[in-house]
Amino acid sequence: MTGTPDSAAIEAMDAADPLRSMRKRFTLPEGVIYLDGNSLGPASQEVLGELERATREEWAEGLIRSWNDAGWFDLPLELGDRIGRLVGAAAGQVVVSDTTSINIYKALHAAMGLRPDRTVIVAEGDSFPTDIYMAAGAAASRPQTQVRLAGVDAPVIEDLLDERVAAVLINHVNYKTGELQDMAALTRKIHDAGALAIWDLCHSAGALPVELDAAGADFAVGCTYKYLNGGPGSPAFIYAAKRHQAEARQPLSGWWGHARPFAFEQSFDADPGIRKFQCGTQAVLSLRVLKGALDIWQDVDMAVVREKSIALTDLFIDLVEVRCGSFGLSLESPREGARRGSQVSFAHEHAYEIMQALIARGVIGDFRAPSTIRFGFAPLYIGYEDVWRAVDILDEVLRTAAWKDERYAVRAPVT
Ligand SMILES: *Cc1c(COP(=O)(O)O)cnc(C)c1O
Question: What are the chain's domains?
Fold first, then answer.
């Protein structure tokens, strides 16, 4: 128990936090400790301003002229390059488009097409489910293609790699446990087996430094409404390494992926670059909100974000175990900070009810079936005192068994 900081130490940690001034840019409600930015990031002053400009000036006044005058048409590429800077991708390799699920489908097809003699997709059994569903969907649309799952067909990805594997779809950070994969090492093993690596960055983009180019990743996908704070349903992104772009094909050959969309030609001729990964007209208002959200990241150093993220999550684990250790919680996340994303998960028999009781008290995390309470720590707006107060409230909920109140057992459709 020695080494657990007291409230004076917590105050000093907040005072010394180089990211402290970022918090006031977000519009978090009073009395809320928001530990769910890994599921839906909060709004900021920047996005409210952009939304106002996008609707009043660009749409209401500019009308159709804004496709050119306000740069709407090139926004997916402009924002793609901005996200590229956060995930270690040089310009021209990332485009913002569609949803993560759809982009997984595009990336899988592109990878399979680049390995035409191979018929196996490897994914992870404990992956965020849409990744497995989309892998099954992509496999079903190609002759004789199979999906092998790590954790089901063999214990780990490495054991599933052989000369039949075309593509491996990996979650950089596991959505439930927060376990972080070594991107460079695993990509190397996948390449040694002659396959291509597709990384899902949903829980790492904006949470920690990502080095797609340096790791030699082939494709990557990710969403923008989690740590990047792009707003509910904001469009996702897809990365295709430059070396694959000319040859890669994606199956959703819509007009926005055409080399000359406004030539209105009868046959499809894919753009030679990253533009080919677009399909149709994008949700411009959502793109404009995302632009505001990305403005916040302009001067942020991801190494500083990472250092604080590990400090916040280490502190949370320490305090929960010291103060709430006797109430049946067990840590589901890696204990070692270097192996963990920016979240902490605990298992508990009554996880759902406990999370509802916490939310009723302003500590917003989430529940993941069957028995996980999950807390995300976004270093741009969460401080050390938030961690301290959240543990205080968790301790109260467990100590008084407040979670037993029957209203906390009522299940909502979104958890
Ligand atoms: C959140 C998340 C998704 C979401 O996919 P959408 O198509 O954007 O709904 C996909 N994969 C992972 C790993 C996620 O965490």
Answer: 7-30+301-409 (3.90.1150.10), 49-299 (3.40.640.10)
